[in-house]
């Protein structure tokens, strides 16, 4: 069963509690929090305090997506609330060290890859991580279109994971909606993340259900 995570980047921040309750009731599997530093990506978003707030609202797993330089600076501060932390391979010099740090703090490590980053960059660390997050848009903003060439990347990654017998999960983030979800799942995605396809809809709960239904490939 493919899991669906709601990215609160497109939520109404003035009503975050209600926005999270809506997706929780509709059956999302986890909450995805996008943190941006204005350096790694050309945008600023939420900070560390948000994960604490979200963890007080919901019992759903919290997945923090660090789109920041030097992600190792923030892992300990986030460890208490985050169940999963995704950091970018492009921003981390010593990913094995980072993965070890996260695991020691009880956090499941996920490595994120920008669209142009090949999967070879994670070949030797694949067995050490909980997941690989394949970005299907350039990170920094919600509401962008799914990049179809990434389907080949997901497929290649899935083939490697299966051939090696690893249990590494493939997360897909960016431009996911009821049309693109089945394509990503067919290519090998285990978990899908969506912001605008959930929160920019009038019926947020209905949007989650539609997405979950469309992901049943
Ligand atoms: C992009 C973020 C995504 C974003 C997805 O930088 O990492 O998680 O919120 O937004 P949509 O689903 O609208 O493409
Ligand atoms: Zn994200």
From TrEMBL:
Binding of a divalent metal cation, residues: 32, 34, 65, 173
CDD domains per record: RPE
Residues that bind substrate: 7, 65, 140-143, 173-175, 195-196
InterPro entries named among the record's database cross-references: Aldolase_TIM, Ribul_P_3_epim, Ribul_P_3_epim-like, RibuloseP-bd_barrel
PROSITE patterns, per database record: RIBUL_P_3_EPIMER_1, RIBUL_P_3_EPIMER_2
Positions in coiled-coil regions: none
Keywords for this protein: Carbohydrate metabolism, Cobalt, Isomerase, Manganese, Metal-binding, Zinc
The protein's annotated pathway: Carbohydrate degradation
Catalytic reaction list: D-ribulose 5-phosphate = D-xylulose 5-phosphate
Co-factor binding details: Binds 1 divalent metal cation per subunit.
Gene Ontology terms: cellular component: cytoplasm
A GO biological-process term: pentose-phosphate shunt
GO MF annotations in UniProt: D-ribulose-phosphate 3-epimerase activity; metal ion binding
Class of the enzyme per the UniProt entry, highest EC level: isomerase
Named cofactor requirement(s): Co(2+); Fe(2+); Zn(2+); a divalent metal cation
Active site, per annotation: 34 (proton acceptor), 173 (proton donor)
EC number: 5.1.3.1
Function: Catalyzes the reversible epimerization of D-ribulose 5-phosphate to D-xylulose 5-phosphate.
Family note: Belongs to the ribulose-phosphate 3-epimerase family.
HAMAP family for the chain: RPE (MF_02227)
PANTHER family (alphabetical): RIBULOSE-5-PHOSPHATE-3-EPIMERASE (PTHR11749)
The name this protein goes by in its record: Ribulose-phosphate 3-epimerase
Organism: Methanococcus aeolicus (strain ATCC BAA-1280 / DSM 17508 / OCM 812 / Nankai-3)
The organism's taxonomic lineage, starting at the top: Archaea, Methanobacteriati, Methanobacteriota, Methanomada group, Methanococci
């Amino acid at each position: 069963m493919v899991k669906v995570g709601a990215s609160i980047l497109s939520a109404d921040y003035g009503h975050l509690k209600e926005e999270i309750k809506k997706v929780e009731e509709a059956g999302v599997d986890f909450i995805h929090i996008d943190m941006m530093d204005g350096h790694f990506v050309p945008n600023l978003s939420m900070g560390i305090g948000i994960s604490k707030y979200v963890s007080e609202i919901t019992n759903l797993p919290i997945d923090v997506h660090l789109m920041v330089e030097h992600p190792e600076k923030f892992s300990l501060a986030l460890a208490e609330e985050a169940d999963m932390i995704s950091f970018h391979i492009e921003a981390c010099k010593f990913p094995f060290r980072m993965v070890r740090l996260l695991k020691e703090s009880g956090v499941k490590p996920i490595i994120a890859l920008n669209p142009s980053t090949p999967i070879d960059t994670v070949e030797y660390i694949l067995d050490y991580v909980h997941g690989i997050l394949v970005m299907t848009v350039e990170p920094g903003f919600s509401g962008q279109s799914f990049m179809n060439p990434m389907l080949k990347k997901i497929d290649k990654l899935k083939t490697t994971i299966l051939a090696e017998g690893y249990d590494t999960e493939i997360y897909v983030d960016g431009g996911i909606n009821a049309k693109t979800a089945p394509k990503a799942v067919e290519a090998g995605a285990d978990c899908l993340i969506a912001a605008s396809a959930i929160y920019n809809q009038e019926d947020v709960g209905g949007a989650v259900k539609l997405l979950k239904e469309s992901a049943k490939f």
